Amino acid sequence: MDESLTDEQEDQLAKVLDVLSGIATPALIFESARLRLPDPPWSPHDKKRLQRAFGGVVAASKIQSYLESMRQANLRRLRVGQRLQNLNEEVRERRATDPLSVVLPAVEIPYLSGLQEVEVHTFVIAVNALYTLLPMAARAAGHRIPPGVLRSLRPYVDLRDYYEHPEQRVPGAAHKHALQAFTETENEEGFRMMFGLLIDPDTGEFVLDDQRIDVSSRAVLAVQRIAEDTWAGIKQSLLADMDKYFRKNPERIPDPQSVVSDFQVRVGGLLEQVPLLHEHDRELFERVRDVLVPVRLPVYDFS
Questions:
Q1: Closest Cα to residue 227, out of 60, 92, 77?
Q2: Model confidence at 179, in pLDDT bands (50, 70, 90)?
Q3: Are the C-beta atoms of residues 249 and 3 closer than 8 Å to each other?
Q4: What is the DSSP string of 137-161?
Q5: Residue 37 belongs to a domain
Q6: Which residues 6+ apart lie within 8 Å of 207 measured at CB?
Q7: Residue 116 lies in a domain
Q8: Which range marks the domain in which residue 245 is found?
């Protein structure tokens, strides 16, 4: 039914929404579903509804992690890029006066270029995850992300696929993408082959097929803005939906003190579920150049 609330119900609903607005978005997804279920025991259908909400919780809780991974990859890319720029300037300055002194910097430059590419790869892995996770969290909250927003992330998914499948793109591969990043020239200077994505000299964007893909800090800010807008939209949708639900079902308005069920997001990976405590055992591992390496392999008894 849809009826006007009494003053007491209005006050109670306002307090409930105030409590809900103060909890973390993943927990809000769960609580909004739980509060609309009947009292336990729950039917299989009720549990299915709660499972769908928990799927949104899983997606929402991972969004923050991938955003941080994206930001950190960008910072590392910038540091490597600055080092590359300094080395290139050093090589140019020394080449005319002391050619032998540029050997070591010239050797380091290809290594750093590869390292920079690894950071771009990490960046697009994070964006690819967000491309999947943002709609999952939004659906669980009844929020719709504009199709154009998701389309703006699609080029990063394609760039991620490019990096994830080198076996399809190396020169000589029997695949439709084999020539995607391969060029060859033959002129009076000889025959030359090159492998790697073209970069627009004016914008610095990567050129993949007919797409120009920005992987600069501007792109990081754009993706972050999409995530932030979606995050805010999820919360607004949930609160508006709860307000509408309780106005139609005033008898379901709970005591504000019972709103939060102490639900905690426990969505960890392997390292959280199975702590690798043995790596702290100095009899098994030692630190070599800031990497833990095994001193001897542990022997497990499977009897």
A1: 60
A2: confident
A3: no
A4: HHHHHT----HHHHHHHHHHHHHHH
A5: yes
A6: 197, 198, 199, 200, 213
A7: yes
A8: 7-159+215-271
CA dihedral sign of residues 218, 224, 228, 230: positive
pLDDT beyond 80 at 295: no
* Amino acid letter, 188: E
Model's pTM, two decimal places? 0.81
Tokens of 47: 């549990």
Q: How many residues does the chain have?
A: 303
Q: What is the pLDDT of residue 35?
A: 93
Q: How many domains does the chain have?
A: 1
Q: Does the residue 111 lie in any domain?
A: yes
Query: What would the pLDDT profile of 243-284 be if each residue is shown by its tens digit?
Result: 999 999 999 999 998 887 666 555 444 444 444 555 555 666
CA 213 to CA 235: how far, in whole Å?
31
* pLDDT tens column, 29-58: 999 999 999 988 999 999 999 999 999 999
